[in-house]
Class I SAM-dependent methyltransferase
Amino acid sequence: MKKKWTGERLETNIFSRDTTEHLHRYAVALEYIKDKTILDIACGEGYGSNLMSNEAKYVFGVDIDAETINKACKKYIKNNLKYLSGSTSNIPVQSNSIDVVISYETLEHHDEHEQMMLEIQRVLKPNGILIISTPDKHYYSDVRNFKNSFHVKELYKNEFLDLISKYFKFAQLLNQAHINGSSLISENEYIKKIKFFKGDYTEIVSIENDLTFLIIIASNAEFSKQNTTIFDGTEVAKHIVNEIKKEFTDSNTFRLGKFLLSPFVFIKRILK
């Protein structure tokens, strides 16, 4: 029996705001993984691990859901890509074997944060890199008065930084905002000077910097820092428009209207 989609995991048939945000995070990861051994912990459907396998030496995609892993194994087949069942507190890879650990939108789904960090440290090589993201509780939940039933323990920005800093000497924080695309803004003294606007032909207004998601790149060795980056959401928007169009043309209302109008279309063609 096919498992019902809950809306929490991103899959490749979904095109939405989440799509651009997730793809942007993997775009950043691509700059650190060339010819490296990668662990994608809580890989979900597996598309991210598959994307990274185009650049990496080898990729392990690990997820706690066995059914999801079985599907990924059948969908993405490459010599340098392997999917495994496992949890963030018991990662099924050897110690000191991973160059880069990727963990996107995982922390908030459990409360074993310290155990997860210890496991990540165990599998990482001494100078390995961790790239990890989580929603900022302030913007994601408090500001919107929103409760995600799938989230067990969300973190505020300072809590996220404190957690990572306990285990890594060097860290860079990126703040992610959605702009009909996605922006990843480096945490520095200029971040509060960046202005966001929205509007149409009748009005343009300044809006709060809704930096909903946090991404940290961390290591016990110095690494190349990220600049502010933008992910163009045009292609995703095209898919959304096409899906809406298809939903409309496949509807019974559209088909009935087309059927009722067909005689008039035929007459019009004859009279031309």
